[in-house]
Every structure is written in C-alpha cells, then in structure tokens.
C-alpha cells in the first residue's frame, strides 16, 4: 500500500481530491457525449432536402398580395426546418438520453397546435406522390372550397389546391399525369383532391372506381334553391350581360315550367346524380356534408369527416371563429401560417334579389327530388321544413 501511494504520488505531482477528480470525469464524459451528438447531426444533415414544395395555390388567390405570399413561404420554410431538426434528434442513437430535447427546437406549442400549421408541406425528397384515397366530388357552390381549406389544417391530410378536373376533362392524359399533380405524402397521410363537377359527370363514378374501388367520396350538399342562386351570382360576376335569373329559370313563365336544361338547375337534382354513383360505389363509401352546418357548426361537420376518413379528431372548435362581415366561419390559423384566414373575396358574394314567387316555384320543383334524396341517404337536411 505504501509503495502504491508513492507510485501514485510520483505520477501526480499535485494530487487531486476525489471530488475534483469526479467532476473532471463528468465534464469529460459530457463533452464526449456532446461531440457524438453533433457528429450524428452533421452526418444526418447531409441528406436533408433543400427546396420545399408548398401546397398548391388556391383556385382564386387574388385576395393575397405578393408580399404576404412570400412572407408565408418564408414562415413555412422556417417551420419545416424546425420540424426536421426535431425529427433528426428523435432518430439519434442517443435520443433516449435527451427525452426533452425536442422542446428546445419546437415551436413552443402543444402537438395539436403544431398540427394547425403546415399540413401540406413536405420536403422534396420526403414521401412520394400517390393517387388520392379520398376525393371531394361535389357539389358546385356547396362549400367544397371551405371544406378543403379546413381539412388542410389536419397534419395527416395532404391536398392539391387547384381542381385537377381529371375524371371529367383530362381523363385522356392518364393516371401518371394525374399522380404527378398530387402533393408528396408520408406513410399514414391521406392524399386528397376536390373537383365539384365530378358529381354531375356521368362517366366519373366508373372512372374513379377503375382507379380505386376503395376510394372515399365526400359530397358537400346545400339547399338546391340557395345553391342555384349562388351559382347564378358567380356567373353574373364574371358575365354581367347574362339574362336575368327569372328568364333562365323558366321555360314558360306563364305556366311556371322550370327549364331543366339549365345546368345550374340540373346540379341541384341530387337524387338523380346519386343514383349514378351508387352503380359503382356503396353508400358506405360516400359521406354527405351539410353545407349549412359547415357554416353554423364547422367543427361538428369536420368531426364527421375526420371519422369518415379514419383520422383522429384534431380539427375542433378552437380552430374557428365566425366572421360577421363575410357571414361564415374562418380559420384562426390556416395551414402554413400563424395568422387568421378567411376565404377570398370571391366567396360569400351578396346574392341578387330574386322574386319571392320564383323562389317558391323553385322550392316546389325541388321538393320531390329532395325527399327522394333524404330517403336514399337516410338523412333529412331540412331544406323543405
């Protein structure tokens, strides 16, 4: 023992106390561990993608100015970079040693708050393009754009912004062309698109079934009378010289015969179009969303949609506020942004004044078709009460 003490004394001219020695060892281990973590991160960063693809532009993006669009892109880029850092750290071999390290790189929000942000951005090299598993097939002026924008808040939904019109106008271009229009998705995410004219296109059901017999279809329906007036209002804003609503509605004003050749009238005969879809899809694969309740209770309708798609109910009341000026709900935080978001100026137009007698005649015309539609779907939408 004496010899050992002398040997130790000889190798350490100034002996260290045990406590100082322990501190030195701890510091050394911490330094080595930190170096290893940074080494792992540096190695991973070589495979990080550079450019980022944003969700498609809205079909009618005129309400956004260039500066706000560029600002939004920068915010989305920063948010995706932060999320990438979190993923890299979580995948690190030493991640179990730092159970709370993701907090330092997060947006200082709860998991569901993160979901409110970028739900449609995926790095170029992340995921793959897939054909849609769910499609919003109708109806025009029913509230399809609102539904799509609301759904894009969900982190497990990726949707193309513009309407592809593949199954009605571009079918000859082939499925490969169609797939290329879709955003990239990760495992567990659902690819979606919306083209309202599919619902009234005779060939669309068979074409979608040929692509996927398991596709889930969503139809946003609205009081046919309100819908046809809204349809006319949109056309009038683009072509002020069109005939009056009354002249387009009637074949013969004296007899009150409705002109069913007018496409705006045809769209509202929902039962007729649904019969065509049921030739290729069972009712269980079609969800009917109330356009009226999408305004009065957006969270409730979105809950039904999330259940239908097999997704966790992440979109709730906390995501919406009611805009009294526009007369419909808006998002408190849209996808890829931390600011409130309402649909553009082309949505929520003021309808022209229509003769009450014309409105009443339209209600009488649509009533039997509505009743049949209620029976087919097993749901009374209350348009005739």
Automatic annotation (TrEMBL):
Question: What PANTHER family does this protein's entry cite?
Answer: HEPARAN SULFATE SULFOTRANSFERASE, SULFOTRANSFERASE
- EC number(s) from the headed UniProt entry: 2.8.2.-
Instruction: Give the subcellular location.
Output: Endomembrane system; Golgi apparatus membrane
The broad enzyme category this protein falls into is transferase
Query: Pfam families from the entry?
Result: Sulfotransfer_1 (PF00685)
Key words, A-Z: Disulfide bond, Glycoprotein, Golgi apparatus, Membrane, Signal-anchor, Transferase, Transmembrane, Transmembrane helix
Q: Cite the Sulfotransferase domain residue spans from the record.
A: 132-367
Starting at the broadest rank, the lineage of the source organism is:
Eukaryota, Metazoa, Chordata, Craniata, Vertebrata
| Residues that, per the record, bind 3'-phosphoadenylyl sulfate | 141-145, 222, 230, 347-351
Superkingdom of the organism of origin: Eukaryota
Tell whether Mitochondrion is among the UniProt keywords. no
Example GO CC term: the record gives: Golgi membrane
What is the protein name given in its UniProt record? Sulfotransferase
Q: Which cysteines are joined by disulfide bonds?
A: 330-342
Q: Where is the active site?
A: 141 (for sulfotransferase activity)
The molecular function terms of the Gene Ontology recorded here are: [heparan sulfate]-glucosamine 3-sulfotransferase activity
**What's the protein's topology in the membrane?**
Single-pass type II membrane protein
Keyword Glycoprotein found = yes
Q: Which InterPro entries match?
A: NST/OST (IPR037359), P-loop_NTPase (IPR027417), Sulfotransferase_dom (IPR000863)
Which family does the record claim for this protein? Belongs to the sulfotransferase 1 family.
Q: What organism, scientifically named, is this protein from?
A: Pelobates cultripes
